[in-house]
């Protein structure tokens, strides 16, 4: 999936939905192109000044690879993830041709008519989308094993009470069990530990006195 973003910066592409099909982790070029495209679209609209408020670009990403096709952090607030377990064997041979024929004949008009009647009074465009079961599956698939072990160790330190507001490596070592204990004690992992703690909501604070 290769393209040049610049030619698409024109009035005809401002109000639209972009569809990126079959995203896969192995498609590094596709991922870079997607990022370049979206960046170019933002820059293109910035040139429109106040006119930008009237234009919307919705992006739909499709994939057959739920847990190895895209990376989403646990605190992601941009993506709504919908997933179907249906396979091609669940459809008749002419299902898709009939569906697209219906789209062309009347489907697009019916969808547009429905969308114009949807009541949006209670919709908050600034709120994060609902985290679905599929969303959590993607997030969990991208977690390092140490993340779960760190969470268990922090729970052990808290011992079911209130969350730990400050933690040191010796505290972690004292509460860690299993394979996580030698991982913490391995000096080559010392630079990684702050990043793991950051994913758990902690920030590194230097102890200049010690």
Report a brief summary of the structure.
With 210 residues, the protein is mainly α. Helices cover 40% and strands 5% of the residues.
Distance between the termini: 53 Å
Class derived from helix and strand content = mainly alpha
Strand content: under 5%
Q: What's the average pLDDT?
A: 76
Which spans of ≥5 residues are poorly predicted at pLDDT below 50? 1-15, 42-54
Summarize the amount of helix as a percent range: 40-55%
What's the SSE pattern?
EHEHHHHHH
Number of strands: 2
Strand order in space, largest sheet: 1-2
The shape, in one word, is elongated
**Rg over CA atoms:** 24 Å
Biggest pleated sheet: 2 strands, parallel
Tally of DSSP helical segments: 7
What is the assembly state of the chains in this entry?
single chain
Please characterize this protein's 3D structure.
- The chain is mainly alpha-helical.
- The protein has a domain at 145-199.
- The protein contains seven helices and two strands; from the N terminus they run βαβαααααα.
- Strands 1-2 form a two-stranded parallel sheet.
- The protein is elongated, with a radius of gyration of 24 Å.
- 5% of the residues are buried.
- The model is unreliable at 1-15 and 42-54 (pLDDT under 50).
SSE map:
Elements: E1 16-20, H1 28-46, E2 57-61, H2 95-117, H3 133-141, H4 145-158, H5 169-175, H6 180-185, H7 193-199
Parallel strand pairs: 1-2
Q: What descriptive keywords fit this protein?
A:
mainly alpha, elongated, 210 residues
């Amino acid at each position: 999936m290769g393209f040049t973003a610049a030619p698409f910066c024109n009035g005809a592409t401002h109000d639209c939905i972009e569809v990126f099909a079959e995203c896969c982790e192995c498609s590094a070029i596709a991922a870079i192109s997607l990022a370049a495209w979206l960046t170019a679209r933002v820059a293109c609209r910035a040139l429109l000044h106040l006119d930008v408020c009237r234009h919307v670009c919705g992006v739909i990403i499709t994939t057959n690879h739920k847990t190895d096709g895209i990376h989403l952090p646990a605190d992601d607030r941009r993506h709504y993830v919908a997933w179907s377990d249906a396979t091609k064997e669940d459809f008749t041979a002419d299902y898709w041709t009939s569906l697209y024929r219906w789209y062309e004949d009347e489907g697009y008009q019916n969808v547009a008519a429905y969308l114009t009647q949807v009541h949006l009074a209670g919709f908050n465009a600034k709120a994060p989308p609902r985290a679905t079961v599929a969303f959590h599956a993607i997030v969990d698939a991208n977690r390092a094993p140490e993340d779960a072990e760190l969470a268990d160790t922090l729970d052990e330190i808290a011992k079911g009470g209130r969350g730990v507001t400050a933690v040191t490596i010796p505290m972690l070592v004292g509460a860690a069990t299993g394979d996580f204990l030698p991982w913490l004690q391995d000096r080559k992992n010392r630079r990684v530990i702050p990043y793991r703690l950051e994913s758990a909501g902690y920030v590194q604070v230097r102890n200049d006195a010690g």
